[in-house]
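Section 4.2 – Deliverable D4.2 (structural model, holo form)

The reporting period included a commitment to supply a predicted holo structure for the target in complex with zinc ion. Inputs used:
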Amino acid sequence: MLRIIALGGYAEMGRNMTAVFWNDQGVILDCGLHLENYIRLTEEDDLKVMSTKLLQQEGAIADLTPLGKDRKKILAIVPSHAHLDHIGGLPYLESKFDAPIICTPFTAAVLRGMVGDNKSGRGGNGRGELRNDIITVQPGASHKLTEDITIEFIRATHSTPHTATIAIHTPDGVVIYANDFKFDLHPTLGPKPDFARLKALGKAGVKAFICESTYSNLEQRMPSESIAKQMLEDILLGLDHKNKAIIVTTFSSHIARLRAICDCAKKIHRTPLIVGRSLSRYIAAAEECGITSFKDAEVVRYSSKAARRLRKVLAEGKEKYVLVVTGHQGEPRAILSRMVSEQIDWRFDPNDCVIFSCKVIPTPTNEANRARLESRLRDFNVRFFKDIHVSGHAAREDLREMLTMLKPEHLFASHGDKKMQAGLASLAAEEHMQKVHLLANGGQMELA
Ligand SMILES: [Zn+2]
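Output (structure tokens):
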């Protein structure tokens, strides 16, 4: 008998966590942070030493109460990729389980980096180590968990490397978990999605499919990451930035985007200077896993050194660098906000160029933070460019393609609020699917 328990991400975007049981053998899929609730507490998106109870009370991580005694039956924790809304809860919650963490190498490297930072008392659980072992599995490979259960990591495209669509093979059928993905036919880093494998699984029969619903109401095919690269090139290579600063801010985990920014910098004969702790952590993980190299860039990790290095940039000449900094959502403690508020010694000149290679994640905190940041930037008369970005999430037509390929018997809508989940349900209805389930956090369902 298969059973699905919704723990987080079934009423919101964030704190993704789902449990899948086959009889008495359980697997946890993802263990994420709700970033809005987390940043409201901490004013930054990096992990800090925090009480697990407080984070649960504030809705920043999942509440494990619905698991009850089944918590002891969890045999593996399987994060699908390295985004904080999928792994950020692990430093606080993994010790509640006695089960290995099984994931792709990049996800493992980011997790180790995140927890390793705790040794200095900066983040996570404050212990500096995880209770459970990490087992790495290459994208495209499988791990036999027990005689009955095998966990497969299917290559997916998303906005961070080594993202996997997870298949849990059990004697009562396959459960597939695509949280998050998009179908990118022209990725700028890493392979295309493994369509052949998805089709083969669909042909053999999929018992249940747990699918992200974030952009289920966006009636389009999500554009490729190669489009975002072109948008960056248009600004960096196509405009006159003579003697002006170029400052780019983007998601720290978006290695493909960071690589594209560095490639552009090279073409205009500037050195990429990457500043910020979370940026440096993801870059170190990408290099460790051989995903790409940032040897052509200079990476400044610590904020104490950031101020000194940026002063030196002013002395050497802004035109020698493309600065890549944290703070795309206007987080008050990130580098860009501190440059703007003059907590870091920096001088903005008219027509300096600031590129937001991201979109504002539409939450009240982010919107207020970004509005404050943009208003200060306007005071400096800089040119700024917003939304130089394409999303890593599936839009409605990507989702339709996935449903058509997998033809699941049961569909569960995850990673979204009620409206987003309803969007996926309406799409499923268009595809004549009968068994569509909109669980709430804490809800569960047995599959006959
Ligand atoms: Zn993601």
